[in-house]
C-alpha cells in the first residue's frame, strides 16, 4: 500500500530516504535488510533444530517489508 508520508514528500519534491522499501521505492532513496532472505534462513535454522510449529509476529500486512518477511 502507499504510505501517505512518502506520497506527501514525493509530491512536495522534498529529498528524503526511507528505512525500508515502499510501494514507490523506485522514486526515492531507501535502505533495508533483505528481510525475505533473513527470515528464510531463520526459519530453516529452526526447522533444522526440529521445530515444527513456527509463528511470525511482525508488522501489519499493509507494510511491504512485513510481506517480505512473511514470504521468507
Structure report:
This protein is mainly alpha-helical and 72 residues long. It has two domains: 1-32, no CATH class; 34-72. Helices cover 43% and strands 8% of the residues. The protein is built from three helices and two strands. Helix 2 packs parallel to helix 3. It starts with a helix and ends with a helix. The model has no long low-confidence stretch (mean pLDDT 86).
Summary keywords:
mainly alpha; 2 domains; 3 helices; two-stranded parallel ribbon; 2 strands; 72 residues
What level of helicity do the residues show? 40-55%
Give unreliable regions as ranges: none
Kindly give the count of domains.
2
Main β-sheet description? 2 strands, parallel
Q: How much β-strand is present in the residues?
A: 5-15%
Class derived from helix and strand content: mainly alpha
Number of separate helices: 3
Q: How is the topology of this model organized?
A:
Elements: H1 4-12, E1 17-19, E2 29-31, H2 35-48, H3 64-71
Parallel strand pairs: 1-2
Helix pairs in contact: 2-3
In short:
With 72 residues, this protein is mostly helical. It folds into 2 domains: 1-32, no CATH class; 34-72.
